[in-house]
Amino acid sequence: SPEGKVIGLSITRMASMTHPSLFTIEYVLTSENYSGPVCLESCHRGDVFNYSNPDDPRVGDSSERMMMTDRAFWQDGCSVITAHTSKSQLVLTSMAKDVLSVPYETVYDTASERLTAAHTLSISAGETVRLTRYTILCDSRRYASTEEDAAAEMAKVSAMPLEQLYQEQQAYLEKFWEQSSLEIDGDDQLQLSVRFSLYQLLQSAGRDGCSNIAAKGLSGEGYEGHYFWDTEMYELPFFALTNREQAKNLISYRYQILPKAREHAKIYGHKKGALFAWRTITGEECSGYYPSGSAQYHLNGDIAFAVVNYYLLTGDLDFMAEKGAEILFETARLWMDLGCWANGSFHLNCVTGPDEYTCCVNDNYYTNAGAKYNLYWAAKMWELLGNAGKLDALAQRLELTEDEIESFRKAEAGMTLLYDEKTGINPQDDAFLQKPVWDFAGTPAENHPLLLHYHPLCLNRFQVCKQADTVLAHFVHEDYQSEETMRRSYDWYEKITTHDSSLSACIFGIMAARLGDMEKSVRYFSESSMLDITNAHHNTGDGIHTANMGGTYMGVVYGFAGLRVKEEGLIFRPQLPEGWKSYRFRFLYLDSLLELSVDANGAKLSLISGTPKTVKIWDETVTAQ
Fold this sequence. Notes:
Largest sheet: 6 strands, antiparallel
Number of strands: 19
Structural class: alpha+beta
Strand order of the largest sheet: 1-2-9-6-5-4
């Protein structure tokens, strides 16, 4: 203070992993030389607005209020606000309680939608005072009566010592790091960025089957908290390898909104199957611009890929019978209704791939490759469940027959995967190569990202990519093309990709490693792994780039270590980046926890727990015992 009085203030916050409705804040005041009264004022507000920016399509452009307060009141020393969302009519109750370590007096104030408590106490020099604020959040998707359930949750957790809650959190995190440990020896900054990314993934992910992973996690309001394909293609690979239950929860979310996906398919004129909404929370489409939103049918293939990836890593046929297979069957049906036969090949017309600078095209390579994989595994899962005696009830409920499965097989075999004889590459779509190349040299640096400066129709007329598209297909479906075709395609698309999306650099880095260019792979990895730490895209203020953080993990595991999850098992092609002494990571495979370590002497596979497992490292079969 101006009079030289000093009070130290320490604040510890915790979003509980073991009590999902709980958030705590602990204030510790330590007086060095002040004796006298102190007033601590806490406020609980219901008059809140979402952040908006009409000049940036990545951020909500509406200043409309989204949450309306229904009741604000005091109950047994707790502030309680119940509100509802303006469009989906979800109900939320938030309850807060302050607990102090010394005697105090409180004046309560209720001003419309604000509840304020002024706590007055006395402190002496050398004394420490603690204020613990417990906050409970209950919503109508998870709780039958939000106010009653919030009160019950508050009574339970506020009776627990804060230190006990901290210990539970520590135990949860210790288990998390035990199974997901990824260590880099030789670059401390990259090690820090990787650990930062993994922790952000953990706290961003829904763990209840009712929620997914927002594009900005829980760190900001960019993209308005909506879920995209990011989860399945960039984040679920991490959880499938390190946290089995979490992976199941994320897939269960898609299963939960499957009825909405069926309704969505009908809206778009499909008679059969399910079409998952491109941008959603509750299952309904939240994208208002269909050419780069709803037209991205590849989301169906992405979700199917995630389901299959989970099965290949776990062998969990019971979960497939319960939820996964139905997703595979219904997404496969959608491709059959969308596609058509022409000149002996199966085509998918008027779709948009991951590259949002090229919209509503025919036979987008990535979309078709994902559909091919989806159809293959729908037919394969039919066989697996049938052989295990787990098929009949599901087939009967879905009215799915062997004839329909045979149509899946034929479409999969006849799927169009474009190849251009002249260039030796896989064209992004059937008209992509006839377009002129964008004038990159003549585009001012300040005009990037292009989406903020050029109309979509302008971008659609040129060979210019926002992000990895065909290159991404070569990463996840490498067996569909020769290595030379993938190499030529990589070189072609690298020249015309702006990486205006944060989902791009990590994929180019992974494929650079796959094609043997480690120098380029390290450069892309360094760029993507440091994206939020350096605010490289100048919008981290709107929230972290959660998918890119999953891409950082994949950059090591799928890039430098070369992991591919295949029907015949796991394959690693490990390489050591220049300047690194070693790296190691743990992962779950079937019933075992394994560790792969790579250094200058080569790669070593170790069994941490479970039964011995066999994988391929390059061309050698290796068993961890």
